[in-house]
Write a structure and sequence with these properties.
By secondary structure, the protein is of the alpha+beta class. The protein has one domain. A 3-stranded antiparallel β-sheet has the order 1-2-3, with no helix packed on it. The longest helix has 9 residues. The structure holds zinc ion (ZN) (2 copies).
Length: 59
């Protein structure tokens, strides 16, 4: 994971402890490969998140 999927900043830099907590509860907002904002849909079973470059991820 090059970028934090919660805050969109470089995963190796800064403090992401809160992001790790939030990740348990919330779907990702940013693509971990390119930090683009993803289109997120929450479903009864989890979520899907789509990056325009990297395609769809799901829970
Ligand atoms: Zn973060
Ligand atoms: Zn991407």
């Amino acid at each position: 994971m090059a970028f934090c999927d919660q805050c969109g900043r470089a995963a190796a830099e800064g403090e992401h402890a809160r992001c790790a907590d939030r990740r348990v509860l919330e779907p990702p907002r940013y693509c971990p490969d390119c930090a683009r904002r993803m289109v997120v849909q929450v479903t009864p079973y989890g979520w899907t998140a789509r990056c325009s470059r990297h395609g769809e991820r799901h829970s």
